[in-house]
Automatic annotation (TrEMBL):
Keywords: Apoptosis, Carboxypeptidase, Glycoprotein, Golgi apparatus, Hydrolase, Membrane, Protease, Signal, Transmembrane, Transmembrane helix. It comes from Candida tenuis (strain ATCC 10573 / BCRC 21748 / CBS 615 / JCM 9827 / NBRC 10315 / NRRL Y-1498 / VKM Y-70) (Yeast). GO terms for cellular component: trans-Golgi network. Its EC number is 3.4.16.6. Residues 523-543 are annotated as: Disordered. GO terms for molecular function: serine-type carboxypeptidase activity. This is Pheromone-processing carboxypeptidase KEX1. InterPro entries: AB_hydrolase_fold, Peptidase_S10, Ser_caboxypep_his_AS.
Length: 669
């Protein structure tokens, strides 16, 4: 009988576990994306990524939901499957759909509002998850707004909890964060939060396997970045000392420099004062260099790519050109349905509601966090060299001033040429876990201009490169870091097994190989590549669902057999039987009838709903760290990423009015 009870307990447990699996997969299937215009037309079945998207609930009490869009390559090499890259755009308040549909995602949107192939998609190097955050950005929503960077970190850590509950098979993946612009503030704060969490795990928590950060044209040290505008403008030929406004701009620069020199590095109020003083430099520079005689759409330098022009006062806010396709694509009700939106709302590239409330007055600049992060994980900072607003001079200057891992700045200050696919694409400085890359002929949005090259940034982070001596006339010796298109390096040579150190450059012509992970071609033959189904559920999900149903049926058959044996046994034993409880001495301790004992056992059982309700109650209670700025229904102004307050004396001229967000609840939700 004891054996029968054990089998029954095992059955109940198995059914409970299977029900949890079924619920999880059922929940996940609600986020599956299988239909987009152009998907079947412009992609082979084997090229269609496995996609999930939707608005994940984080906090019920303030209706906070963050929108995500996850891409996985069905043909990815096995060694890359356990890798998750979270991509964030900046603003604050700018949607990461910029990154998904104009930068590192598998799609671009053509003039017919159909998805076409991005040859440099990062999803071929690992799963990529684009997240609209903080709440209110893009398709994310809440009744309350964040206003400081600590809140962004807490909110994203909560998102990760919910996300990995939905995708538990990814919870042990290597995790990387990538993004650009104001994500130079977001990413260090989130990374710092993860690293602190890993050191203070609560019962039942597992550490997140955070492996590295990639920040492009990052707004990391605002004061240093502001002081780079005038030197950059001179180097780029935007202005010179003979310009009529030179003295005016120089005085603003000097005022900013004096404020920075007098700043107490531990005073938040001092940082705010410096920001207020320094932010006017770019405003004045763009205003004074506009060409009133040019065509209306060519009067102002594009602050994101100085080689381009734009109308004044937009100065880059109408860029990039793909935005005219992305906007209607994301505002299509059919596409919003395909992306599983609970709350359908008008998509804006950047939300003025979020940006205006996100003051960060209680947050230190992210540059203060970098030294502690660099003690634990590698960081790559890359800049497109044509960007004004977050230019490479500012990044190099704050690196020179920053102390990390026992020294200040790069000690050797040696610049490697970066050679990608046989072409010199920039230069690289790397030391003590920090790598800086200046990328030639690229804008504020490097992946938009250089999609395939940008994917190779992952190789640089993971030190999956060669170091070679290149012949330069008149130069005795020059070293180059060489990366390749996806998979080419694997065909190029046999790469040594990953090691914990990076080979040092040598003075000979021999090739030196970087360490860590190598990337293989997405087109390499796989043993059994997964072909996406045209149905609403992917093949592997169907298979796993079928196998679970089969196991449940088998368990039901087994329990019927056991129950039959039990009933036969009960019939045979027609009189009540006794169970003798023995004490430690082996003597009879107590005697009870079997049916009485079963009754007592039932009395001792605790209803599972009580514990569940208690657990749910914890999540329903308000978090003191989650008290955000309440929303309102006032009309709001739309700001381009990092481009607020650009018109001297008349801010409104530099703000594009946008329609109120149109929110339509799905019926029944």
């Amino acid at each position: 009988m004891l054996f029968i009870h054990i089998l029954l307990a095992m059955f109940v447990q198995a059914v409970f576990v299977e029900s949890l699996h079924f619920k999880r997969d059922s929940d996940r299937s609600q986020f599956l994306v299988s239909k987009l215009p152009g998907l079947q037309e412009n992609f082979k079945d084997s090229e269609i990524p496995l996609m999930f998207a939707g608005q994940l609930e984080l906090y019920k009490e303030n209706d906070t939901h963050l929108f995500f869009w996850k891409y996985s390559d069905n043909n990815i090499e096995p060694e890359y499957k356990k890798r998750t890259i979270f991509w964030l755009n900046g603003g604050p308040g700018c949607s990461s759909m910029d990154g998904a549909l104009m930068e590192v995602g598998p799609f671009r949107i053509d003039s017919n509002l159909k998805v076409t192939k991005n040859p440099g998609s990062w999803h071929q190097a690992g799963d990529v998850v684009f997240v609209d955050q903080p709440a209110g950005t893009g398709f994310s929503y809440s009744k309350e707004f964040d206003h400081d960077l600590d809140q962004v970190s807490w909110q994203f850590l909560r998102f990760m909890e919910v996300y990995f509950e939905m995708f538990p098979e990814d919870a042990d993946n290597e995790i990387y964060f990538a993004g650009e612009s104001y994500a130079g503030q977001y990413i260090p704060y989130i990374a710092d939060g993860i690293l602190k969490r890993n050191k203070n795990l609560k019962e039942g928590q597992n550490p997140y396997n955070l492996k590295g950060l990639l920040i492009g044209n990052g707004w990391i040290a605002p004061d240093v970045q502001s002081l780079s505008y005038l030197p950059y403008a001179v180097a780029a030929g935007i202005i010179n000392t003979n310009h009529p406004a030179w003295t005016k701009i120089l005085k603003q620069h000097e005022k900013c420099q004096n404020a920075a020199n007098n700043m107490n590095g531990d005073s938040l109020s001092d940082f705010a004062i410096v920001d207020d003083i320094c932010e006017g430099i770019l405003t004045t520079l763009l205003y004074e260099t506009k060409d009133n005689s040019a065509a209306a759409n060519q009067q102002c330098f594009n602050m994101y790519d100085y080689t381009l022009k734009d109308s004044y006062p937009s100065c880059g806010m109408n860029w990039p050109p793909d935005l005219v396709n992305v906007n209607p694509f994301l505002n299509s009700l059919d596409n919003q349905a395909s992306l599983n939106l609970i709350l359908k709302k008008k998509w804006h590239e950047c939300s003025g509601r979020v940006g205006s409330r996100f003051t960060a007055k209680k947050s230190y600049p992210a540059v203060k966090l970098l030294p502690g992060i660099l003690e634990q994980i590698p960081v790559v900072l890359f800049n497109g060299n044509r960007d004004i607003i977050c230019n490479y001079i500012g990044t190099e200057n704050f690196i020179k001033q920053m102390e990390w891992n026992g020294a200040t700045g790069f000690q050797e200050d040696y610049a490697y040429d970066w050679v990608y696919d046989g072409q010199t694409s920039g230069y690289i400085k790397t030391e003590r876990n920090l790598t800086f890359i200046n990328i030639f002929d690229a804008s504020h949005m490097v992946p938009f201009d250089k999609p395939e090259l940008s994917r190779s940034l992952i190789d640089v982070l993971l030190k999956n490169f060669d170091i070679e001596t290149v012949d330069i006339p008149g130069d005795t010796e020059k070293k180059a870091i060489v990366t390749y298109p996806l998979g080419v390096r694997k065909l190029h040579q046999e790469v040594p097994q990953p090691s914990s150190t990076t080979a040092a450059p040598t003075s000979t012509n021999t090739q030196v190989t970087g360490s860590f992970t190598q990337f293989a071609s997405s087109g390499a033959a796989a043993s059994s590549p997964a072909e996406p189904s045209s149905s609403s559920v992917p093949a592997e999900d169907k298979a796993s669902g079928s196998s679970r149903i089969t196991r449940i049926i088998q368990l039901v058959v087994l329990v019927i057999i056991i129950w039959g044996v039990y009933m036969l046994y009960s019939t045979y034993k027609s009189r009540p039987s006794s169970i003798i409880r023995t004490g430690p001495s082996g003597r009879k301790k107590n005697v009870q009838w079997a049916d009485q004992l079963r009754s007592f056992q039932n009395d001792e059982e605790v209803p599972p709903s009580g514990l569940l309700n208690k657990a749910l109650g914890v999540f329903r209670r308000g978090d003191t760290r989650g008290n955000y700025t309440p929303t309102d229904t006032d009309d709001y102004l739309e700001d381009i990423e990092m481009g607020e307050n650009l018109v001297p004396g008349n801010v409104d001229h530099f703000i594009v009015d946008s329609e109120d967000e149109e929110e339509v609840r799905k019926s029944g939700t």
